[in-house]
Amino acid sequence: MKDINRRNKLCFGLGTVGRDMFYAFEANALLYFLSNVLTLPLWVFVTTSTLLSVLRILDAVNDPITGLVIDNIRSPWGKFKPAILVGGVASVLFYLVLFGGVGQGTGFILLFAAAYILWDISYGINDIAYWTLLPALTQDQKQREKFGAFARICANIGMYIIMVGWQPITAALGNTREAWFTVAAAVSAVYLLFLLFPLLGVRENRAAAQQEEKTTLRQMWRALAGNDQLMWTTLSMALFMVGYCTTTGFATYYMQYLFGDIGMYAVLAAVCGVAQLAALAIFPAFSKRFNRRQLYGGATALVLLGYAVFAFAEVSLFLIAAAAVLLFVGQAFIQLLMLMFLADTVEYGQWKLGKRNESVTFSIQPLVNKIGGALSTGLISISLVLSGIKTGDTAAVSIDAGGQMIVKLSMFAVPLVMILAGYIIYRKKFRISEEFYAQIVNELREKGELAAQEDGAE
């Protein structure tokens, strides 16, 4: 059993390196590619960036259906691996179109919109199936925290390879459309390569999945709407993600237009990466001494302090780095806790509703990410126009004090309100404590509904 857990932890975690490289390049650099690399007329940029927000929200509604399909998979290769493979390969094809920058005017908008929605759907298939493996591998909370912490460490390594590297690499290659496509192709190859770890290495409990009854559309709706703890977790996660994505999405513009040196963006990204990796590495030690409510409260306090320093830090790289450490240590803790809260709602839903729906439950994670990304993209795009960064075919070289204030308010004030609101909702509504979760698992085991999941056998 220990050997299986060690193997699953390693292969599950390593698979996230390529996945987060792939996703981070789209999430953090695609808007910059549209605004500062391609010579798009203002109306094309506004239309395209608006479509990014609208299409993400529309596709988010599709995620529970994707979860339903995955929950109903019965194959010789298991429940999740076929979706991980198909979603992975398909998402690469549409990804390359996004960074191809093909067409002009209306033709560009239509091709980009089609590629984006198909990329979002196919990556969502991969994403839901991938993270649904976590609650399927173990029901032990501490074991989940170890699996989750290692996976988030690997994911952040992949993410920060991109965060640190994309700007200097694309600049070194000439910052042209062809250079960006080359980077996108290289990232896609790494993504597919690292998917081999979960596909070939993770040992999924296939027998338990084969015994489950298939889920109907009505049962899918009941699994979502009837799971009150899932709904409150979703709202709290969504508010957090809007704030988090908005802050990270503004980072490049902050360093270019407020600090005045875009070359230092890679330094800021490296500081953030080290801070988050360190936070995830020490999380298991903190979780032994403090319960999750205490950890969430302490992490939120760090985020508040980080925003307070960041808002007045553009004159000093040292202050920017200090603010980033506070902010991203807190955010790393919160993101990992959110993953654990979501995983625990799987057993809660099974206990309350009598049916285990891992993929339907975990379809909430990409749904939240898409809504967070959509709203933050919309906010950033509006701010780019109002601040004067994007006024014509090319981006402005500099902006005035009023434009800088717009960037600061959008990057700090709005996200801070969102993150605080998410924490307040968690404190008032989330009730799956460690003790309550143990009671749920014990009752399910007494009824024989979890025993088959513990051996980790193929």
- Anisotropy-based shape: globular
CATH class reads Mainly Alpha
Name of the CATH superfamily: MFS general substrate transporter like domains
- SSE order in H/E notation? HHHHHHHHHHHHHHHHHH
Assess the beta-strand content as a share of residues. under 5%
- pLDDT average, as an integer? 87
Number of domains: 1
Distance between the termini: 12 Å
Structural class: mainly alpha
Give me the CATH architecture, please.
Up-down Bundle
Number of helices: 18
Work out the helicity level: over 70%
Largest pleated sheet = none
CATH topology: Growth Hormone, Chain: A
Radius of gyration: 22 Å
**Secondary structure: number of strands:** 0
Describe the structure using short key phrases.
Growth Hormone, Chain: A; disordered C terminus; 458 residues; mainly alpha; globular
Describe the structure.
- The protein is mainly α and 458 residues long.
- It has a single domain (12-211, 224-448), classed as Growth Hormone, Chain: A (Up-down Bundle).
- It has helices spanning 2-37, 42-60, 63-71, 81-98, 105-137, 141-172, 177-194, 196-201, 206-211, 217-225, 228-259, 265-289, 292-310, 317-353, 358-362, 364-387, 401-429, 434-446.
- Helix 11 packs parallel to helix 16 and helix 14 (317-353) runs parallel beside helix 18.
- The protein is globular.
- The two termini are 12 Å apart.
- Residues 452-458 have low confidence and may be disordered.
